[in-house]
Amino acid sequence: MTEPSAEHWRARLTELAARHKVPGASLGIFFRGELTEAATGLANVDAGIEATTETLWQIGSITKVWTATVAMALVDAGELALDEPIASVFPKLRLAGDDLTKSVTLRHLLSHTSGIDGDVFDDTGRGDDCLEKYVALLDGVAAIHPLGATMSYCNSGFPLLGLIQERLTGMRWDELMRERLFRPLGLTHTVTLPEEALRFRAAAGHFGDPPVVAPQWVLPRSMGPAGLICSTPKDVLTFVRMHLDGGVAADGSRVLSQESAELMRTEQVRLPDPYLLGDAWGLGWILNGWDGRRLFGHGGNTIGQSAFLQVLPDAELAVCLLTNGGDPDALYRDLYREIFAELAGVAMPAPIAPAEQEVPFDPAELTGVYERASVRFTVVFEDGKLVMRTLATGPQAELSEHPETESVLYPAEPGVFATHVEGRKEWVPVVFYSLNDGSRYLHHGGRATPKAG
């Protein structure tokens, strides 16, 4: 069988982006040592700026793997340890409670098991002290679960990790990324600051149909280690290639030990919800199984921009898709389904859906209020249906297209429900479960939210 050509994937990207009303997109496919690139649409609808393969996009939370990589390089150098309390290198740390402060480790931060509420997005300014100011806020943020008790996606842990890296190296996080990753890997189109992005053709996020440029371009600088890298598929895949090559850059220089590169994609925790992001988490990487094969990757969402990265090591295949509006999740599923089937013979799993047969459940066990820093879920049983009302709170509510939504939860399997959320055509999961101490939780969007009442 002849492998599809670069022209084929450019055509498919263009066709599928139009179908799902994605204003602009850029695609990179690294397969058996060869890179294929494609771009389509507009980087900025209002300005009429065309998207090209050299356009910079916000890669969002894929940034976390870059921050994690530098952390593991510090472990290689003996400056950090995976399982020693981070308070040993940052004695001024103050979190919600002495136990958490004294016991949280690097492994907890990288595997999203710390219990720190993950969605604190307070803007602490553009100064070089933004991470220090941000971490000071965590003292007043309640923990959402006991240390190591479950997995909950934690943006907040990465500014903390960034500050620790700054203290250990004497460099600001932005410069640390340049020194430890961008320059050694030869990345020419990867930056962390908006004034750096201005040197290039940079994509804007969009909301709505027809698409309108988002009112804010970038998240606060304090969220840098969690999600502020801007890049291209080519540069992202160069970073991935280093991981696939056991921590060695293309020029032969070592960025990361082979042991650490392998450990980063070794399972650390199983996910309560194995349907949305993956079935397990490594040290930075999300892990998943497709058609009996193991993948690692990550995704990212900022303000009107979405990024997708999946890597299938046994096929020497890595795919990066960067987008700026519309229904990027539908574009991702349609495009990756084709790419992985045609290049690796792997079937992407179908998304969750309501069960065809009746799945009994007790509404009394599920209804109530579940709440954390940026969201409140109110689950009620009305007219024979389980209904979830979602209210965005805090700074993120101002940036949300729909801060208040309501959706019906349809049983998929015991404890697991399928629902529709604003902006996505496909079903997404909602999981109800209990910790070992009996406390009740709702897992949705990768986050664990405790039952408040």
From TrEMBL:
Q: Pfam families, alphabetically?
A: Beta-lactamase
Alphabetically list the UniProt keywords.
Hydrolase
Give the domain of life.
Bacteria
Beta-lactamase-related domain location, by residue?
A: 10-338
GO MF entry, a single one: hydrolase activity
Tell me which SUPFAM superfamilies the record gives.
Answer: beta-lactamase/transpeptidase-like
Membrane-spanning residues: none
Q: What is this protein called?
A: Serine hydrolase
Taxonomic lineage is: Bacteria, Bacillati, Actinomycetota, Actinomycetes, Streptosporangiales
